[in-house]
Amino acid sequence: MKKTILALLLAAVAIPGFSQTEIPKARRLKWWQDAKMGLFIHWGPVSRIGREISWSREGYGKSRYDSLYLGFNPTRFDAREWVALAKASGMKYMVLTAKHHDGFSLFDTKTNDYSIMHTPFGRDVCKELAQAAHEADMPIGWYFSVADWKDPDCRNPRTNGIFAERVLEQVRELLTNYGKISLLWIDYEGWPTPVAPKKVYDLARNLQPEIIINNRLEPFTPDESHAYVGKYADYATPEGFVAGYGKVPWETCTNMGHQWAWKFGDEPRSLKESVHTLLRCVGGNGNLLFNIGPDSTGVFPADFAARAREMGKWIARNQAAIYNTKGGVFSPSVDYVSSYRGKQVFVHLLDAEKNTLALPAIPAKIKSARLSDGTPVRFTQSSKGITLTFPADKIDPIATIAVLTLDKNAAGIPPAVPLPRSGSLAYARKATASSAVGQFYHDAAAAFDDNPRTAWKIGRRKDVDFSEYYGKNLHYQSPEIMALYEPTGWLEVDLGKPATVGRIKLGESRYGQSEIRKFEVLYQKGDQWVSLAQDTAMGDWEKIVTPVKAQKFRLAIQDYHGYFGVNEFQLFPPAP
Questions:
Q1: What stretch(es) of the chain map to CATH 2.60.120.260?
Q2: What is the pLDDT of residue 506?
Q3: Averaged pLDDT, 295-301
């Protein structure tokens, strides 16, 4: 088997049209970043019982779960209808679960018999969907789990190498047999990938040079999959949430409903929540991969399909502010987001109860402000900020969009953070840290953004060879994996100039009790760091301190257990 796969890989490299010359990332990503939203499809034999894909296997009974495919016969499946729904919903690409963690393949794999070809249905779903997508000029991608909970060779100390070869063969099948594949969405399920990331990445690049690959080949924790783009990835994949502005390419994956796979009695999220999820991704400079699970017959539930089309109609009326834009020049706030193209900035008012927005100042002059239908929007602009007043009779219950025309290209304007809400002296100030687990969401700046949904988390140790851990049966919460991350660390903020601080407020992202067992807040005095406060548990922590005047403050984490996150580090003047 090993010799066979090696020969196939060498053959793939030699095929005319394939190239080992990597296409620049910016060029690969452009169509995807312009597209903004794709349809995620979680599907398989588990739809027969309405439970979660893969994750219900243990509770349902492994043997019973693994036998569901014997009765899987989705006779109403129509690939063209799936593509038509995606297009009508404003979605510009599609990603199907070709193989989830449970090991079942929706494609004609020759590596085992646990596939769609060995069900009563007996048709290659991936082939039919790829054909329909190509006919409609719809980019198609495969979700693929490099793990397989059913395969006894997966992460087996003696036979994992054999399993890894099988995985590479499945990747080769998926990227060779179905024409152009635009995206490979690898999943991480809590254990280091059983296949060396470089092997998967290089194979995909050789077979499909233009393919986009997400960041879940390398993570050792879910936080890394949410916020870190490693060496073998193009973009990050926050899951189930949207928070803030991304400095690297990213895509939130989440559900229109409340389960990845089809669920009995599930209901779609409201039109407002669905659209706002998209707009927050657009305004945060990211994408949305919106999931709907078909039922066991191969049909999307009628209420979900209706909601998706309703969403598509709203998007069609406002598409100029969504597609082919970048997030900014105002980074997201509670009641607005913004996007831009050229000299036009689109400000999306998300709160239908108000018609006035206060925005931060930007280094550009607003020449005009109007709604998409040409109705003027009143505005004032000064060095301190901008005020927009939307026509009260034109407020859209979902989102109202003002088009601002600037005197310069918006691309050169750095994102302007929202006006402060907390009053913290540290808000949006320059932040640094000893290490961080992410490049956004979990970087140092995440603790100074007045947004408790983002959090700084300590990063990896530098004295570890992480490649040695791939293929090991070690969960991310195991002591062995936890030991791969820095045991202590610090978070620092520079206020820009000396300021008097008399109150400190800290917030910890956690489940249950505090994982931060010892910490200290310090300030810089000359060349020394002087202690200001300390404690043995964080959680939601606040303390009034003897006032000190300083420019730089630091939070030192001295003892923690688990995967903590500092969601806010706030400094306030003394009480009057």
A1: 430-572
A2: 97
A3: 98
